[in-house]
Please model this.
Amino acid sequence: MAAKKQKVVHLSQAEWLLQRPENFLGPMEPAETQVPVFADDGVAWRTELLRPGLLTLLKELLNNASDNAVRDDAQRYIRVEWKDGALTISNDGSTVPIEMVGGQWAATLAFGVFQSGSNFDVDGGKEAAFTAGRNGVGAKGCNVFSTEMRVVVVSAADKKAFAQTWQDHMTRALPPKITASARKTNETKVEWRPDFARLGDDGAPPACMRDLCHWFAHNASLCAPAHVKVSFNGQPLKLRTAEHFCRALGGVGPLASDTLDGLRICVAARDDAVAALPG
Model:
């Protein structure tokens, strides 16, 4: 009997990521996750069944805005919004230049082409020590796991605005639009529509999606410098320090705080009586 022939295929990086997402995103099977629910009168906890890969992608987009505050002391805001099935994150400060790099717009590379970015310098000093996004995947992973992603970059120095939309898991890149801009400040805005057929519950967003986005906005608030104001759905977030978060998340008694390599650390015992919301 003749030996069976093996089939060899070659996948693009986007196809590979869709077929083997666990290599970058972590597990894709739903798992019980403790989600803090932030309200005016405190924080409660809810146990949700979520795909860890979704949490990784949420973190990736917010990391871009948070890292930018490390690169540029002039940054003043991070705005997070969850509305109509889309997560929108905006920040001022440093932007990708609106210029051509190797025959493509720099923003097209940064958000739509793998192994591209601005954080490959192994001797990057402060940026290398305190920022993420070291592998050139980041936001491109979000783009691949989306039905649509739109990026708008406004550069005051270039006096231009860049806008581009990708669809169908980054397989369709609509032509970028470059327009003149008289705006005096920079802005980067990313609108991400996750593919909940792969990331959600039977094609729908998790019921707690707003709470998830609110939680991750608070994480950005914790990590951002004091002069960077973080808001969620138009409302400024008031929890800013490690001590604030330790108390809000159920920490009781004396807090143990310290600063290590520029990072503020706070530890406390947890009050088991902190309310747990029904699932």
User: Anything to note?
Assistant: The first strand starts at residue 31 and ends at 39. Residues 73 and 93 are 8 Å apart (CA to CA).
